[in-house]
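tool=predict chain=A
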Amino acid sequence: MDLKDSTERGGRGQLGGLVWGELGSTKMFLTTNPGLESVVEKEWAGLLGREGIEIARSIKKPFAYGGQVLVESEGECALLERIALRMRSVHYVQVLLYGFELPLDNELESIECGLESLVVEPLREARCFRVTTKRSGRHAFSSMDVQRVAGAVLGRNYGCAVDLKDYDVNVRVDVYDRFCLVGLQLNDRALSNRHRRKYSPRAALKAPVAYALLQWARLEADASSALLDPFCGSGTILIEAGQLWPQLELCGCDIDERAVNGARVNAAAAGLGDRLQLLRADARRLDEVYTAGSFRTIVTNPPYGVRFGKHLNFSRFYQRLLHQCWTVLAAGGIMVVVVWKRGLFSRALSQSRCFKMLEKRVVETGDLYPAIYVLEKIEIGDQSTIQ
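tool=predict ok
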């Protein structure tokens, strides 16, 4: 059965039939922050394109849950695995082995029967393995029940022990509504933990979100202009940019001295200590520390007023921020900003009349769902391009 067709017909949680495809076809399940699915698709297509490999299929939210992308590609499985583990927009990578729909009753028994006939080649040579389960939807069993049943079946069939800490293979048995997916998780440490943070405040962005913000900033592959993050925090955005664009000039500031010092420490740990130009400054007074029109791009994550910035007057804050960013941006410059208080920001944006909104997205980060605004600087008085 064609995977894409079955998804379109089945709706929520219904892929229908087996998940694996023809010989030589590899299916992978990639997880990310909800809202970044299109970024994952684009990155995967780009990485495969450099290797001369075409994508057979790509499905965002295959079970109608955010943060999931199912991809199918032709080619050597080992090569595709190596490519997937280089991705910057992804947290975890699974190679899918098997998938089946669950009946309305005796669901746990159906999972047990499905696993009895499953061939998991890596377990033939494994000493120990573990089973990891994610369960979404309403069921008469728990994730631990699935792990217990799967561990017993696979341990009996392959003669290897279950060990949750010291294992050779991590078998995924996930249940999404009425569908069960079985696969192998390739990475135990999230790919998003690639930055060696020695300073990590609670509100720090995850690296995949920083990567997505930079992609939406429309930076060229050989970008060598200047990037500013006026709320640099732990330095995640600037460090991610430095690893992607070796020629890019990286500037950041923060009103919190601890954040500036922490960003310096993190940049040094990432091998970028000599590239980041960091200083303590108030983003509401950027024109006092930076020359007008000196930046081609601003990418930033201001306070949300949830964990930090609770006492800010956000109406005035957004108005001042937009004016200051407009001042230090070059003509036609791009600003990508993460916003929690969307209504106040939209009102300030409309009143400022100095930016054109190119796009707006919603992304999950830290259990919150802020909006991402992608803005282009326009000359004040050019009202025809304002949206």
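The CA atoms of residues 204 and 234 lie 6 Å apart. The two ends are 44 Å apart (CA to CA).
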